[in-house]
Amino acid sequence: MNSVTRLPFLGDLDDGAEASFHIPEQERKRRRFRTIWISDIHLGTRGCNATMLIDFLDSVDSDTMYLVGDIIDGWRLKKRFYWPAAHNDVLWRIMKRAKRGARVVYIPGNHDEIFRQFTGMSFGGVEIRRKAIHATADGRKLLVLHGDEFDTIMLAHRWLAFVGDAAYTMMMRLNVLVNAVRQRMGLPYWSLSKMAKHKVKNAVEFISKFEHVVAHEAGTRGVDGVVCGHIHNAEIREIAGVQYYNDGDWVEGCTALVEHFDGRMEILHWADEIAARERAEAGRLAA
Ligand SMILES: [Mn+2]
Predict the structure, then answer these.
(1) Which residues does the UniProt record annotate as the domain Calcineurin-like phosphoesterase (predicted)?
(2) d(Cα 219, Cα 79) in Å, to the nearest integer?
(3) Comparing 190 with 44, which gets the higher pLDDT?
(4) CA dihedral in degrees (54, 146, 240, 211; nearest 10)?
(5) Ligand 1 center to residue 222 CA distance, Å?
(6) CA of 69 to the centre of ligand 1 (A)
(7) Domains detected in the chain
(8) Mean pLDDT, to the nearest integer, of 123-141?
(9) How far is the CA of 164 from the centre of ligand 1 (A)?
(10) 271 — phi, psi (to 5°)?
(11) What is the per-residue pLDDT across 46-103, written as a single tens digit (0 to 9) for each?
(12) Is residue 155 pLDDT above 90, yes or no?
């Protein structure tokens, strides 16, 4: 007989209880990468595409994962508390990766700058850093940072105001609405503001200026390249001998930057990946 008596109401205080996911973890074969960079998730906002990100997290694995800022949107949460179960699911999945042994490095951005005060500390295996130097498999050195560090230089440009302000919020709401309708009609995910960004001349100019400023700054620090987020525009390009990488966002672009085991870098557009997977599944069912 068990001699240890336990107060029944303390049962809920058990440590190590497995978190129950609102959206259960998918048991699919995961694609493995050496490194994954994601940023600009904006948990705590309606614009955050948590379901798509959960699908991504359940489909990939890596030795190292960098969270390149604006993971939680503290600005928006302060104004209005919004935290659906799916947003918890994202955090749990990230913590679980760290627990399973992946190196997880969190570099807070401007929307989650509140976490910058914990720089140098680590929570549940997640290291908090202001910036990082990543060594690729093929021996390159990449500076990893969020990118808001350059806002002061960029202030003359109007798109920045657009990124943070009401017009952008409204567009994101519209994006959610448009895609809810598209999903009901059986149409694939489509990014409204991505289209707008490419059509608006000022936006194109802003993005290009940002990329040049970041690449130039990285060049002066003696690294081969730079990985950032912040402007919600995924990109791989070389600027004046410096490799510029932007991992995009999970508000509407739904992109990640990955490093393969040979050092090759790639941007994954997750809406396209889901569409390809569903086509393949439909093909298998038809065969
Ligand atoms: Mn940002």
Answers:
(1) 34-233
(2) 38
(3) 44
(4) 80
(5) 24
(6) 7
(7) 29-286 (3.60.21.10)
(8) 97
(9) 9
(10) -60, -40
(11) 999 999 999 999 999 999 999 999 999 998 888 889 999 999 999 999 999 999 999 9
(12) no
Q: How far is the CA of 239 from the centre of ligand 1 (A)?
A: 22
Asked if 126 and 95 touch (Cβ cutoff 8 Å), the reply is: yes
For residue 262, how far is its CA from the centre of ligand 1 (angstroms)?
30
Q: Please name every residue paired with 235 in a beta bridge, in sequence order, or none if there are none.
A: 246
Give the Å distance between the CA of 19 and the centre of ligand 1.
29
Q: Is the pTM of this model over 0.70?
A: yes
What's the CA-to-centroid distance between 194 and ligand 1, angstroms? Answer: 17
Residue 4 C-alpha to ligand 1 middle, in angstroms? Answer: 52
Q: Which pair of structure tokens corresponds to residue 199?
A: 């059509």
Indicate whether 191 pLDDT > 60: yes
Give residue 2's pLDDT band: very low, low, confident or very high (50, 70, 90): very low
Per-residue pLDDT tens over the stretch 213-237: 999 999 999 999 999 999 999 999 9
Sequence-separated (6 or more) residues with CB below 8 Å from residue 156: none
Distance 283 CA to ligand 1 centre (A): 40
Start-to-end C-alpha separation, the chain: 58
Q: Which residues are found with C-beta within 5 Å of the ion, ligand 1? A: 70, 109-110, 148, 230
pLDDT at position 275 is: 95
> How many A from CA of 70 to the centre of ligand 1?
5
Distance 231 CA to ligand 1 centre (A): 7
